[in-house]
Amino acid sequence: MSLTLKLITLLLLALSHHAESGSIVKFLPGFEGPLPFELETGYIGVGDKEDLQMFYYFVKSENNPQEDPLLIWLTGGPGCSSLFAILFENGPLALKFELYNGTLPSLVTTTYSWTKMANIVFLDQPVGAGFSYSRTPLLNKVSDTGEVKVIHEFLQKWLSKHPEFYSNPFYVTGDSYSGKIVPPLVQEISRGNYICCKPPINIQGYILGNPITQITSENNSKIPYAHGMALISDELYESLKRICKGNYENVGSRNTECLKHIEIYNKCTDKLNTYHILLPDCDMTSPDCFLYNYFLLNKWANNERVRRALQVTKGSIGEWRRCNYDVIPYNYDIQSTVPYHMNNSISGFRSLIYSGDHDMLVPFIATQAWIRSLNYSIVDDWRPWMVNDQIAGYTRSYANKMTYATIKASGHTAEYKPNETFIMFQRWISGQPL
After folding, report:
1. Bridge partners for 407 per DSSP
2. Which entry of 132, 176, 221, 355 is annotated as an active-site residue?
3. Would residue 355 show up in a list of annotated catalytic residues for this protein?
4. pTM for this model (two decimals)
5. What's in the keyword line of the UniProt record (predicted)?
6. Domain 21-216+288-429 coded CATH 3.40.50.300
């Protein structure tokens, strides 16, 4: 083969490789001028016939993409889009808070993006979340264990199309329901490195915010949490403990006295915003409400110009939803991820677990309880961690390379305190104490 023909062949291979792996997005409707970071969007086909089309957003590190860590971010739900993380939690853009007047909502840059020091693949998962879709009807329910396999396959295929990132330190990250997915996924990747998959994924650890870990324990912790936050009286709490014996879940008709007390508890707490108990529980269409930006997000993501810019396959989904709880038939088949945390610790992986201390959905006392159950010795005991000489939260480190941190006055996701969450991440990912 002549040198010219070889060069043409290599060029064609490179072009086809790029086309398969996604496309660079240089402009986004609502943002003035070219994007000041590198964004790639695309689909990776998963399954025997690649019927599952998994949509991702890849943002290159704004620092040193060749050497900085590579993260995959999984938003919870199950069924919430990773676009929420990009525009609300730890991405380089945010929606400008302004009254909707029928025009496209505006985007602005952020100062707290984790992409300032990491490459991040934000994945819409499972199928039905965000812009991910299936080309054929799903024959089986989506499940926790099935999703672990899907994401692992996604990662293998994504890295094969982006081989320059194989050597970067890799971390699995997410929050909320991804607490059920991230620990088994870390184990799956680790085992896959030995059994099936070459080159290996350079996995170093994982990060979880307000993670759902074992739902019964987390639900049972809501009443002690409510008491600690002065939401119920001492007398009611003592009666609940005595009569219900610490089990407030699925009481049924077996204990009518317990049910009566739970009813009183519900009257005290039903009107709370469980995602952040300090914020009002109001309709997201109210401009006076923190959730109004969710309304703006819905308007932005369902705009046809936006979908074209993101290169979403036309007709692949109907209305985009921040969280698509209705469409996905889901099998919650992992009851507890504590054994996976234990296995990952034995394998030597680093981990950062954090809790917004005003989250009532996954109260910090439940998270602390399962971490204690791992029975690892403490290497850096409970202390405040500081930002600008102010207490940003509290932290403790364990001998199994696990760091736990609270974020003061934050709620269920990083959107409530993105600056503090960013500084926590920045310190941890670079190996510094919080």
Report:
1. 356
2. 176
3. no
4. 0.92
5. Disulfide bond, Glycoprotein, Secreted, Signal
6. no
